[in-house]
Each structure stands twice: as C-alpha cells, then as structure tokens.
User: Which sequence fits this backbone?
C-alpha cells in the first residue's frame, strides 16, 4: 500500500505533527483527530488532493448500494470511477499549479477507515517526492472526470444520495453557507 501527502512546498524534509487548521466535530473518543498529526491519503483516494490546496471541490463515486437513479442523476453515463467538481473560478489555478506528491512510509500510519485517510502521531520523513505540473492530466490518469460549475452549491443535495460524496475546502466555495 502507498500513502501520500500533497503540498505546494517542494522542500519538505520531515513532516511534523500539527493540529488541523479548522477543528471538526468528532464523535466521542475521536477528539484526538483535531490534535497534532501528520495526515496522509492512500493511493486509491489520492485524486481528492490533485487540486490547488484551497480549491473547493466535491468528489463523487458509486458505492455498492448506489441506486441506478442516483448514478444517473449525479454521475451520468461516464465510465470514470470518480467525478470531481470545481468552480469556474478555480480552473486557471488548477491549470497552472504545480503540486508535490510526497510518498510516506505506510508503517508509520494508522487507518482512519474514512475515505482513504491515514494519520501518524510522529514525525515522518518522506520516501520520495514527485512534481505534478499537469493536474488535469493527473486526474485523467487516475480515471477521474473533471466537471466545472459556476458554483458548487447546486451539489448540496448529493449528500442525500446513495453515492459517496467528499467535500474539501467547501468553506472557500462561492455562497456555500
């Protein structure tokens, strides 16, 4: 298994645990997830981070219980394994951004059992780094269809569907509140 951390900084020699910027509500016993940690994502879920850091995005994929109706409405006829949505305002940054994908030693991490997220409570030295300068090509190579919308707000009802929906940096989306 491969684990990654994505950054716009090409010079990270060691990842130090740090608290999340915006603490989330956690179920009892999981409050420690707002503490100091190093975060990583597994290979299957890495497309969630093939975007500029602050870019609001929603990624969808079918689950075993996804209904034909939900797939048709939100996913359509695409053969892609994931559909990713961003706002028009972020397309230029997506096109010109270079990201750095750090591969991390999996043995140092524990699985959160949540959309490919893993954490370490200790410092982590990366195994190697890849510069990714064509994020659209990286998404395509990961079998992700990118869709552009004026605003992501029209997707709010997708969380009531039978698809998996991951929203990242939605606080930066236009009129999300």
Assistant:
């Amino acid at each position: 298994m491969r684990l990654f951390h994505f950054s716009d900084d090409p010079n990270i020699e060691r990842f130090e645990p740090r608290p999340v910027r915006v603490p989330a509500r956690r179920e009892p016993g999981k409050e420690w997830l707002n503490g100091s940690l190093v975060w990583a994502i597994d290979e299957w879920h890495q497309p969630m981070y093939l975007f500029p850091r602050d870019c609001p995005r929603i990624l969808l994929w079918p689950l075993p219980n996804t209904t034909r109706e939900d797939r048709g409405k939100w996913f359509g006829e695409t053969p892609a394994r994931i559909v990713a949505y961003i706002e028009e305002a972020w397309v230029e940054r997506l096109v010109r951004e270079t990201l750095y994908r750090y591969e991390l030693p999996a043995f140092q991490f524990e699985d959160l059992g949540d959309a490919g997220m893993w954490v370490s409570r200790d410092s982590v030295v990366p195994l190697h780094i890849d510069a990714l300068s064509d994020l659209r090509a990286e998404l395509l190579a990961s079998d992700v269809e990118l869709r552009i919308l004026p605003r992501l707000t029209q997707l709010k009802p997708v969380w009531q569907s039978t698809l998996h929906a991951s929203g990242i940096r939605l606080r930066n989306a236009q009129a999300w509140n």
About this structure: Helices lie at 68-75, 91-96, 135-141. The chain has a mean pLDDT of 93.
